[in-house]
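(Protein data)
===
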Amino acid sequence: MSAELLDGSQAVLAPQVLFECLCVLTRPRENNGAGMDAAEACDRLRKAVGIVPLLPDPEGLVDRWLQICAVNKVSGKQVHDARLVAWMELHGIHRIMTLNGRHFARYAQVKVVDLSI
């Protein structure tokens, strides 16, 4: 399997995406999760990393993230999305595939590929 997209670009993963996925996969179904046990969820994430390359958190991530939060007046749960934007900027990535495109609407530097139905 390959992480190459239809347009020839390469999909990559941020460590943060794995953290957030593990949270959702192991959260109970009645709380909007998948209800998996930790071992199964971790196995699935390991398989994902075997298909889609995992890029590390770059140097300067915290400083850039704090700048983005301050400039965009980001607070609450949206700080997680701002961290992804900082990670993307530092890696020179300009597109994000997400189920929550509206969360990234405030960031002109990010092109959103919204996968929600």
Helices lie at 15-26, 38-51, 61-71, 78-91. The chain is about 45% helix and 5% strand. The mean pLDDT is 93. Strands lie at 95-98, 111-114.
